């Protein structure tokens, strides 16, 4: 598999639906589960599947993503493995930005084809799932397909947000429609008894594709006006080529907006989470940090995930994820919240100096109440701060925070003075 397959991970566009988390970073660089980045998920799936050569395509706010990949994915000097960034670049042939998923691959193709491979695996950089790509690629080869699309059964409610397709008895895709709003009954598929029992009667594209090398080169060259795989390339290919549906029935979620990001992270605290971080067969790789274990004093913990290097003195942490180096003061309550942590510790001298001036420290202070919130990295939340997200709050974007679907997102590096109420 290592020799036959090359992975390409699409970094996504501006990521406006995930703002303000994407104001200073690209979507794949957004921290998830307290210690990882979103890009670690597709990369780890590839490594666990025996695919060790990958490109990550990006163009917006790519500095932190570049740094993460540079500091994380190191391989032996005697190995051909690599994870490299391909950022949008001006060339003699093209002076513009990536205009879509297919255009991004097309503009980077001169870098990609310099490597030997038979199949190219194209992935999204903003999804949470665990998949063995070896099985998908084997099915692709067995079916003599030119393209394979990973599909997942969804309900009628979710079908309007995805590309929906139909396949014949050999799982060859016969038709495709992007985000259907009407006539859903015509797109019902035989997804199997278990999936149908859950009302998941529609096959949705997961944005995960396998292409034969020469086929992809040809189809991208045939019509350079087609910029997107889902909207343009694939519908045309289905009419002309052998396109296989590979049905996946495990956990998968598209981290497209603040609500889905929030639910995916807090869902990790469930007793038996849908996404299993504790599966030794699906290791999630990330940057190795030399951090001390977390220290917790006088805190009641309920359904909480706490990353390394935290200093916790809160009275209660419930249904929450605390990221690396998170600091939470005495008599504070944190519920239904993702605290991303911080990039550094303050020294004792800094703490004494800031405290003497009445300034807030990095982290969350004493006697705070935080509920239904996302606290981005390096925030300074003073004492006696109350943040209570919920449907009673109107959506809006403010200087220090934003509200989306009732979730209060404190912006990266924001300073909330003591006594602030949101």
Automatic annotation (TrEMBL):
Enzyme class: transferase
Keyword DNA damage: no
Keyword ATP-binding on entry: yes
InterPro entries assigned to the protein according to its UniProt record, in alphabetical order: ADP-Glc_PPase, ADP_Glu_pyroP_CS, NTP_transferase_dom, Nucleotide-diphossugar_trans, Trimer_LpxA-like_sf
EC identifiers of the protein: 2.7.7.27
GO molecular function, one term: glucose-1-phosphate adenylyltransferase activity
Span of domain Nucleotidyl transferase: 7-270
Keyword annotations of the record: ATP-binding, Carbohydrate metabolism, Glycogen metabolism, Nucleotide-binding, Nucleotidyltransferase, Transferase
Protein family according to the UniProt entry: Belongs to the bacterial/plant glucose-1-phosphate adenylyltransferase family.
Name of the protein: Glucose-1-phosphate adenylyltransferase
Annotated source species: Pedobacter lithocola
Source taxonomy: Bacteria, Pseudomonadati, Bacteroidota, Sphingobacteriia, Sphingobacteriales
């Amino acid at each position: 598999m290592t020799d036959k397959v090359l992975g390409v991970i699409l970094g996504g566009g501006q990521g406006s639906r995930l703002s303000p988390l994407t104001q200073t970073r690209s979507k794949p660089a957004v921290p998830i589960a307290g210690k990882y980045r979103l890009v670690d998920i597709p990369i780890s799936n590839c490594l666990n599947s025996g695919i060790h050569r990958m490109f990550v395509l990006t163009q917006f706010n790519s500095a932190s993503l570049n740094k993460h990949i540079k500091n994380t994915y190191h391989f032996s000097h005697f190995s051909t493995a690599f994870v490299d960034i391909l950022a949008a670049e001006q060339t003699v042939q093209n002076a513009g930005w990536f205009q879509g998923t297919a255009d991004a691959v097309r503009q980077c193709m001169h870098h990609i084809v310099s490597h030997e491979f038979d199949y190219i695996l194209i992935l999204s950089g903003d999804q949470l799932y665990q998949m063995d790509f070896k099985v998908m690629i084997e099915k692709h080869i067995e079916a003599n397909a030119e393209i394979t699309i990973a599909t997942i059964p969804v309900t009628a409610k979710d079908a309007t947000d995805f590309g929906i397709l139909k396949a014949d008895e050999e799982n060859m895709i016969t038709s495709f429609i992007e985000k259907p709003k009407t006539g859903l009954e015509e797109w019902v598929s035989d997804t199997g008894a278990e999936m149908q029992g859950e009302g998941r009667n529609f096959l949705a594209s997961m944005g995960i594709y396998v292409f034969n090398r020469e086929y992809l080169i040809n189809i991208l060259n045939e019509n350079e006006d087609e910029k997107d795989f889902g909207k343009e390339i694939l519908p045309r290919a289905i009419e002309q080529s052998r396109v296989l549906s590979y049905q996946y029935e495990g956990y998968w979620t598209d981290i497209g907006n603040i609500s889905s990001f929030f639910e995916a992270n807090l869902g990790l605290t469930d007793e038996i989470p849908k996404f299993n971080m504790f599966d030794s067969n699906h290791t999630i790789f990330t940057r190795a940090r030399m951090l001390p274990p977390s220290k917790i004093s006088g805190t009641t913990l309920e359904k909480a995930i706490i990353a390394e290097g935290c200093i916790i003195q809160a009275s209660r942490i419930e249904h929450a994820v605390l990221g690396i180096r998170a600091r939470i003061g005495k008599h504070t309550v944190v519920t239904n919240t993702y605290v991303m942590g911080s990039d550094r510790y303050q020294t004792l001298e800094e703490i004494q100096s800031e405290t003497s001036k009445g300034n807030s420290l990095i982290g969350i202070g004493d006697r705070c109440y935080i509920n239904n919130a996302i606290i981005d990295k390096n925030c300074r939340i003073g004492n006696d701060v109350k943040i209570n997200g919920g449907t009673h709050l109107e959506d809006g974007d403010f200087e220090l925070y934003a509200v989306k679907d009732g979730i209060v997102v404190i912006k990266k590096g924001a300073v909330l003075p003591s006594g602030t109420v949101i």
